[in-house]
Amino acid sequence: MQWYEMLKEYFPEEEMKTKQHLNTLLAEKDHYYLDSSEQHVLLYAEFKTFIFVDYMYVRGTKRHKGVGKQLIHKLKQKGKPIILEAEPQDPNDADTSKRLRFYSREGFKEADSIQYTKHSLLTNERVNLDILYWDPSENETQLSIYTKMIQMYEEIHTFKEFEHYHDVHPRAHDVIHFVKQEHNLPS
C-alpha cells in the first residue's frame, strides 16, 4: 500500500491534505520530509528552531511494537522542540485516548493556552485540534509555541493552497489563538 493511501485509511478526511499538496510540499520545500515504509508514514517539516509533525501513522499490526517510539526518538535526536496537532480526547473514540497517552509517555505537553480550529478545504469542515509539544530544553513558553504554529501554518498548511483546492484557508491569526497567559503550577 502506498504512503498516501495508508494516511487516508486512518486520518479523517477533514484532517487530510490532498496527495498533490503533499507532493508539492515534498518537491518544493527543502525542509519538508517523508519517512515511510510498509509499517509507517511520517511527514514532517524541520524548521531552523523546531520540528512540526504533519502526519504520523503506524499500521495497526505494528502498533505497540515500538515503531512510533522509534520515529519520535529519531526526531528528538535533532534537539529541537517538536510540535504536532492532535484530536482532543473523545470518549467515543478509543484511538484518541491511546494517541494522547502515547505522546504523554514521550514527554509531550498540551499547549492549553492555544486554541486551534483547523478549516478543511477538502470538506469545508472545521475541527478543533489540540497542540502538543515536546521541548528538549524545558524552557519553551506556550507563547513561543504559538509563534511557531503561526509560522508552520503559513508555510505548510497554506502553501500553494489555491492551486490544490481552488480555495484559500483562513489566515493563521483567524484560526490559531493565544487565549491566556501561562501559569507556573507545580508539577
UniProtKB/TrEMBL annotation:
The N-acetyltransferase domain, residue ranges: 1-130
Official protein name in the record: GNAT family N-acetyltransferase
Domain of life: Bacteria
Gene3D superfamilies: 3.40.630.30
InterPro entries attached to this UniProt entry: Acyl_CoA_acyltransferase (IPR016181), GNAT_dom (IPR000182)
